[in-house]
Amino acid sequence: MIQFVIISRIKLKKQLRCNWRSVSGKLLNKESILKETPINFNEIPGPKSYPIIGTLYKYWPFIGEYNAEALDKNAWLNWRRYGGLVREVPGVNLLHVFEPEVIEAVFRQNDRYPARRSHVAMLHYRLSKPSVYNTGGLLSTNGPDWWRLRSTFQKNFTGPQNAKQYVENTDDVVREFVKWIRDSKLSHNEDFLIYLNRLNLEVIGVVAFNEKFNSFTLQEQASESRSSKVIAAAFGSNSGIMKLDKGILWRIFKTPLYKKLVESQQYLEKVSMDILLNKINFFGKEHERKNNSLLESFLQQPNLDLKDIIGMMVDILMAAIDTTAYATSFALYHLARNPECQQKLYKEVANLLPTKESILTSDVLSKAVYVRSCIKESLRLNPVSIGVGRLLQKDIVLKGYLIPEGTVIVTQNMVASRLPQYVRDPMLFKPERWIRGSSHYENIHPFLSLPFGFGPRSCIARRLAEQNMCITLIRLVLEFEMKWMGGDLGIKTLLINKPDKPIKLSFVPRH
Ligand code: HEM
């Protein structure tokens, strides 16, 4: 009898799982049934977990088959071996979610304060410096403290008009960059990523702080210059975050990686403070009042103090440079490898800006449909992060399994976006698949590709970042035909996905 009950229970669970797959859109109707018989988290397929070390051994050199700098490859392995829901236990409960319907269910939890478990060591460092910071900043803070910052800062970022006011300034910087490429006759043997980093520092400097770093001068290209050190400190902060999130030794003594994070943070702090003090001294003078930088608007917010603003300035320097430079690198890579797409892009842009004197306005950008779909398509294939992380704040049921509060969920959008069941010819770069009305248009699941995350915790600067990329692609393609001179490009997952080889491009002037 007992045997019969157990067998029927297993059958029921299996049935529920099957049903769940086939009617995955109807989450709420199923949830009530599933709640009664949720399957234990530990039964979710995944690598074998041992006491104390969990599945951490999988990342150990020589023994493990996972590589912390190749999270995309680990994810492929997991997907092939275990399917759409994969459990890992590297110190915390970790759940990888691959199917867009289930990714949607994760984001539809409607948490008041969506949370991430990341930047833990940075949070620790900032909280140990109350004379400089009030909180860990937007990237690392969770709960009501995060919302206090987010709801205030986002007023300056997310409105449709906010990004538009920076089109002219950004275009000026990008045009200087294009001229610099032309004049300096860049060789394709150089890594173009270095210059995209400099470009994005200049753009964010002007937009966020009304500050020029003059990164392209000879002095600034030296390694000890301010711009070189800011770029290195942003990278030094970001590249250690993920290893420190996984590690515990830094909590006991200052490991070399923790020291590097601290040094990088200190440099970004110093530069931010210098800029801030400078602006405050000039604040009130007529010429300064006219500038519309983000910093100026932060200073006018009554519920922010200088410590909040320093935290945000450091976060901006950390979050803006590498992300936009990597995303632009991949967009150029795909365009250079797909000359017919590049030609289509050129045609659209040349039509929108027919003469050298034509001005690039927000109106022009809104008509640049092909440019935007090239960016979307490039971010589908090569998002800046493999997926999005969320820290679960209550128990939920996914595909019949009980996922306990405190689990870290990683939505595996990069792998899912390359699967043929969700996208036609997924490995091809086809911007047309995003264009309604095109014969190649595909009705792609809205939770498949989420390069800027989702919901109230999504990228605060999405519009700005997309706009900066649009302007860069437009100006480059107007001036040059770009050819790819390297091999296949993969990624190194250092929190964000860095191209694993140099960006080798040849720029052939169009006229
Ligand atoms: C192509 C460029 C960029 C990409 C692909 C990108 C992507 C992302 C992603 C995936 C997140 C996490 C979203 C989530 O958890 O749902 C994020 C958060 C964030 N991004 Fe971006 N980002 C880019 C550029 C920028 C820029 C230019 C800035 C600053 C000016 C910025 C500032 C931030 C901040 C502060 C957060 C944390 C938001 C929060 O937790 O409330 N990002 N970004």
TrEMBL record:
Binding site for heme: 459
SUPFAM superfamilies: Cytochrome P450 (SSF48264)
Cross-referenced Pfam families: p450 (PF00067)
Highest taxon, organism lineage: Eukaryota
Family: Belongs to the cytochrome P450 family.
Record has Heme as a keyword: yes
Organism: Parnassius mnemosyne (clouded apollo)
Protein name: Cytochrome P450 302A1
Gene3D superfamilies on file: Cytochrome P450
GO terms, molecular function: heme binding; iron ion binding; monooxygenase activity; oxidoreductase activity, acting on paired donors, with incorporation or reduction of molecular oxygen
Entry cofactors: heme
Keywords: Heme, Iron, Metal-binding, Monooxygenase, Oxidoreductase
Transmembrane segments: none
Keyword check for Iron: yes
PROSITE patterns xrefs: CYTOCHROME_P450 (PS00086)
